[in-house]
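Re: the 449-residue chain
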Amino acid sequence: MKRLNKLAVSAVALATATACMSSTALADWLEEAAKPLAGTEISGIFLDRPGYRAIIKLLPEFEAKTGIKVNYEIVPYENTREKTVLNFTSQGDLTMALVDLVWIGEFAENGWIDPIENFTSDASITDPNLNLDGFFPLLLNAFGSWGGVTYGLPFDNYSGLLFYNSCMLKDAGFEKPPETWDEVMNVYAPKLTDASKNQYGFALQSLRGETQSADSFMRFLWPFGGSLLNAEFKSNLLSPESQAGLKFRQDLMQYMPPGIVSYDHAEAVNALAQGQVAMITEWSAFYGTLTDPATSKLGDCLAVAPEPAGPAGRLPALGGFSLAVAAQASEEQKKATWLFIQWATSEEIAKSYVEAGGVSGRMAVYEDPAIKSQYKFVEPMVASWQAGVPEFRPRFPSWPGISEVVAEWGSKMMLGEVSAEEGAKQIGTRMEDILTKDGYYDGSKKLLQ
């Protein structure tokens, strides 16, 4: 209820802003809003991924319209949170926060980012067509909201999808992709694997770090009916369902390339792009890489489907980032940053953003017939956002520490250094120690957000 009230207040503010603006301002709201801010410099962190390369391509348009200079540093994902936290705790120069959905609790509770209500209440800097209802509700809630308050707008949006080489599948006698993980293991992968030819049925990005904890480990909990935590925030990794998923992952390794535990996203995507593997489960944002002739040999053989279903149903991975205004910025920088965030996530540039390689969080763009026909990932991605798993990775502030534990012992499981059961015990003990220290069991912190 608290979240609905906050959004209602924002909606009233937006309606008031629209009513007070002249027709000229409505047509050119960005230029008008930016006039007092011309010459202001703002700064943020970008990743070396398609969505950020897409917005960089479009950036000259924003800077020309506004006179605002956008400075950015491209940082590897693995270093982004640490670099951002250090900047905020030392009162650095970042005016904009790139917020992974699992960082939103930490950033909000530490007061490092401002609620968007601080800005939507100001008619002079708010797009009359901001339309918060135009975002997929799952994304706005998971990526940008915490404790019923909206802090950021969805920017780089991911859904886990099955990318596959339709030509390899057809040569193996398959006319359609697998519907279930059971089919992947027992029907498709055996026929698509020939180690003597360095060809494998499946690749699962599993590099130690967030890739291991989120993209590998967590991917095999939910579809099998498992979860990281139970309702009391105690470890659920020894449940029959969680163990089934983790043991399934171990068994599936026989159909993956050697050294799969060292594969990050780039290696998994490249393995499919070069014809080494037939199937991968990867984020929707990598569609552009797989369709680029400079990086992929797939051509018309590239096909996309929803992630396979497990015994608990089809529960695909959910990931992504929001953009939020940094609390440490000056008032002028905050206003300029808010203008950029609105523009970068707007319905107005959503089509250009998608065509440049990004994945918009706006619903309307995926109803465009040209977009639907040109991009094979749209239909399965949109379907996944109707019934995704917002808590695919826990969004509370303790996640970064827990992620390190999961990454360490999840990697040891895959390497055969510990069994799935022993690894789950080790993660559970260490995870509950972190949650105890952080106050989740003595009542000082809420268990659910």
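Residues 159-317+392-437 form a domain with the D-Maltodextrin-Binding Protein; domain 2 fold (CATH 3.40.190.10).
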